[in-house]
C-alpha cells in the first residue's frame, strides 16, 4: 500500500500524461494539514452563554416575589443549577434553562387558574353586611 503515490499499473503502462495524483480519493492534504479552502474543522464554537439562564432566574424570582407565585420556586432552583453548569456542562445547562422557562410558564398558568377558581368561589366578593372595619372601630 502506497500513500501519496499513484498505484502501480500491473500492465506496465504507468501514469498517463495529465493524470493527477490522488486518484479516486481526491486531493490529499499537504504535510502541514489541510490548507484554507480544503476540508478541515472550521471555526471554533462560540463560548457558552448564560443569558437565558439568568433571564429565567430573574423572571422566576419576580413571579415569586411580586405575584406570590410559589409554583415558580422550582424554576428558581433549575435556573440557578443552569447558571452553575454553563461553563462545565453546557448541554445540561441548556436543558435546565429550557425546563426553567417551562416551569415559569406553568407557574403563570397555575396562578391564573387559582385566581379564576377563587373568583368563582366568591373569595373576592365583599360581604356588605352594613359594618366594616372602620365602623367597628368607631363603635
Describe what this molecule looks like in 3D.
- The chain has a domain of 70 residues.
- The protein contains four helices and no strands.
- Helix 2 runs antiparallel to helix 3.
- The N and C termini lie far apart (109 Å).
Helices and strands: which structural class? Answer: mainly alpha
Shape: rod-shaped
Largest sheet: none
Q: First CA to last CA: what distance?
A: 109 Å
- Can you give the helix content as a percent range? 40-55%
> Gyration radius, to the nearest Å?
34 Å
Low-confidence stretches: none
What is the count of β-strands?
Answer: 0
What is the helix tally? 4
Mean pLDDT: 76
Secondary-structure element string? HHHH
Strand content: under 5%
Highlighted features:
transmembrane helix; mainly alpha; rod-shaped; 139 residues
Concise account of the structure shown:
The chain has helices at residues 51-66, 73-85, 90-121, 133-138. By secondary structure, the protein is mostly helical.
